[in-house]
Amino acid sequence: MDLFSTTLDHGNNLLPFGGTVNYYGKVMTTVMANVYYDCLLNTIEWRNDEAIILGKHIITKRKVAWYGDLPFEYTYSNTTKYALTWTKELLELKKICEEQTGETYNSCLLNLYHNGDEGMAWHSDGEKDLKKNGAIASLSFGAERKFGFKHKQTKQTIYLVLAHGSLLVMKNETQSNWQHRLPPTKLIKTPRINLTFRTIVV
Ligand SMILES: O=C(O)CCC(=O)C(=O)O
Ligand SMILES: [Fe+2]
């Protein structure tokens, strides 16, 4: 038996219970990942994210963008955005995610973290306009960063590193039972781009 085969098997669920998270590792060559990274950095309509948290208007350092099949309205943290129409490269990346995961997606939220000072705090992606228990496919480009899961009740945590050109999928009850985060780190000085392909219910 090959002792190493299971570690490369994306069929392996990283969560012990209460959801499914599969890490596929790199789903494209480094050369392809470099091309997409440069292209996304330069062609996406990056905007600083705004939110109203406890009545305070916050503008994040991290930049975001929102694309989809239709100008979907997407509301979170009390702000509403309308999805832009897909670029050629986003459609190519959506296709890669759909082929790898056997699911379909109709929208994509993009995040640009300029360096390790920027991250994302513990949260679940359980917004009401997202398909309940729908798969969320996450592609990462640029700096390799740690990504964590924390169970809402037991507080059990699981960390992994998301590689350049890699795919991670969260599905089933993951968003109901687990939170996830991208911790800030002093060690990273270069940008990371993350794309999460999702299904919005209209
Ligand atoms: O940057 C990441 O890897 C995850 C981003 C995320 O959790 C989100 O956009 O909801
Ligand atoms: Fe998230």
Supply the key terms.
202 residues, alpha+beta, Jelly Rolls, eight-stranded mixed β-sheet, four-stranded antiparallel β-sheet, 4 helices, 43% strand, globular, binds 2-oxoglutaric acid, binds fe (ii) ion
The CATH class is identified as Mainly Beta
* N- and C-termini, Cα separation: 48 Å
SS summary, helix count: 4
Strand content: 35-45%
The overall pLDDT average reads 92
* Fourth CATH level, the homologous superfamily: Alpha-ketoglutarate-dependent dioxygenase AlkB-like
Low-confidence stretches: none
Sheet with the most strands, sense and barrel status:
8 strands, mixed
* Number of structural units classed as domains: 1
State the shape.
globular
The ordered string of helix (H) and strand (E) elements is HEHEEEEEHEEEEEEHEE
Strand element count: 14
Small molecules bound in the structure, each named once: 2-oxoglutaric acid, fe (ii) ion
Radius of gyration: 16 Å
Pfam families: 2OG-FeII_Oxy_2
Domain Fe2OG dioxygenase: 104-201
Protein name: Alkylated DNA repair dioxygenase AlkB
GO molecular function: dioxygenase activity
Describe this structure in words.
Strands 1, 2, 3, 6, 7, 9, 12 and 14 form an eight-stranded mixed beta sheet that branches. Helix content is 18%, strand content 43%. The protein has one domain: Alpha-ketoglutarate-dependent dioxygenase AlkB-like (Jelly Rolls, Sandwich), CATH 2.60.120.590. The protein is built from four helices and 14 strands. It has 202 residues and is an alpha+beta fold. The longest helix is centred in the N-terminal third of the chain and has 14 residues, at 30-43. It binds 2-oxoglutaric acid (AKG) and fe (ii) ion. Residues 109, 111, 120, 125, 138, 147, 180, 182, 194, 196 line the site of 2-oxoglutaric acid (AKG). This is Alkylated DNA repair dioxygenase AlkB. One of its GO terms (biological process) is DNA alkylation repair. It holds the Pfam family 2OG-FeII_Oxy_2. InterPro entries: AlkB-like (IPR027450), AlkB-like_sf (IPR037151), ALKBH3 (IPR032854), Oxoglu/Fe-dep_dioxygenase_dom (IPR005123).
